[in-house]
Design a protein that fits this description.
Protein name: Binding-protein-dependent transport systems inner membrane component
Distance between the termini: 67 Å
Structural class: mainly alpha
Number of strands: 0
Shape: flat
CATH class of the domain at 87-298: Mainly Alpha
Subcellular location: Cell membrane
CATH topology of the domain at 87-298: MetI-like fold
Radius of gyration: 29 Å
InterPro entries: MetI-like, MetI-like_sf
Helix content: 55-70%
Transmembrane segments: 37-58, 102-126, 133-155, 161-183, 212-230, 267-287
Main location: membrane
Largest sheet: none
Number of helices: 14
Length: 303
């Protein structure tokens, strides 16, 4: 006869389940630790790849010219040479460069953001013929290199008499297809019940856009705005082509002017000028990185 199997009373636990859980295999634990170590090592290498050049730039901006070429390198400059920033500012008319960059960046980025918002709203909430085809054609324009349109834009600006003017600097780059795409994808994730309720209450498109849709798109608006600001601030080729006087140059062109003025001798001043150009965008990113991460991860992948 087979051994009798004891029956468990109601509420009684199985003694076989009361023991400790089976130990994990040592090989699996070792593989998990190895993968974690390799992941951290890869992150450290990637971080150093970006941080070391930036640190070298900022440290070289406060070094003596001879210390920049010193080997082994001097990683901690002491005493700092703050005079490099004054030499850079005096060697080139950075006051004109800074004012021009601020005007071009603020006005150009604002126009880009407004255009992207209006276009994205139209593609999501309006009905018009061949809407999907127009959207695909606009996305296809992202595949065209910007250098292809330089000659056409220059001829257009010359015919309009806008060479060496703020209009010539700003208007050719007043549209942002990439920003429109990001905002459109984010608007597709918004609940339609809110906009439908607003339409029932008699709200028009402009009221829905500015009072309902855009406030809910704040993370993506910040993302698109930062992208537009960085794009306008760092633009080099177009300002170099469309301006022909020093008084209308922007900061990236000012670095080229500074290098030609200083030659290859005073690299401390050149590095200080580079810090003047790069520092505002670094500060802007540090203050907006949380909104950028939220905007890019919330709705940019929804079709």
């Amino acid at each position: 006869m087979s051994a009798a199997i004891p029956l468990l009373k109601e509420g009684q636990d199985d003694p076989a389940l009361d023991g400790p859980p089976p130990p994990r295999r040592r090989g699996a634990m070792t593989d998990s630790r190895l993968r974690r170590v390799l992941l951290y090592a890869a992150l450290v290498v990637a971080g150093l790849t970006f941080l070391v050049p930036v640190y070298w730039l900022f440290s070289s901006a406060v070094k003596e010219n001879s210390d920049i070429y010193q080997y082994p390198p001097q990683w901690l400059p002491w005493p700092p040479v703050i005079e490099n920033f004054g030499d850079a500012w005096a060697a080139a008319p950075f006051n004109h460069f800074l004012v021009n960059s601020l005007i071009v960046t603020v006005v150009g980025a604002s126009i880009k953001l407004v255009n992207a918002s209006l276009t994205a709203y139209a593609f999501v909430y309006l009905r018009f013929p061949a809407k999907n085809l127009v959207f695909l054609l606009m996305l296809g324009s992202l595949m065209v290199p910007g250098n292809v349109t330089l000659i056409v834009n220059y001829i257009t600006m010359a015919n309009l008499g806008w060479i060496n003017t703020y209009l010539g600097l700003i208007l050719p780059s007043a549209g942002s297809v990439f920003g429109m795409f990001l905002l459109r994808q984010y608007m597709l994730t918004l609940p339609s019940d809110i906009t439908e309720a607003a339409a029932v209450d008699g709200a028009g498109h402009m009221r829905k856009l500015f009072q309902i849709v855009l406030p809910m798109c704040k993370p993506m608006l910040v993302t698109v705005g930062v992208i537009a600001v960085v794009d306008m601030w760092n633009d080099f080729i177009w300002p170099l082509i469309v301006t022909n006087t020093v008084e209308m140059r922007t900061l990236p062109i000012g670095l080229l002017y500074l290098r030609s003025a200083e030659g290859y001798n005073d690299w401390g001043a050149i590095m200080a000028g580079t810090v003047i150009v790069a520092l505002p965008m670094l500060v802007l990113f540090l203050f907006t990185q949380r909104h950028i991460a939220r905007g890019l991860t919330a709705g940019a992948v929804k079709g």
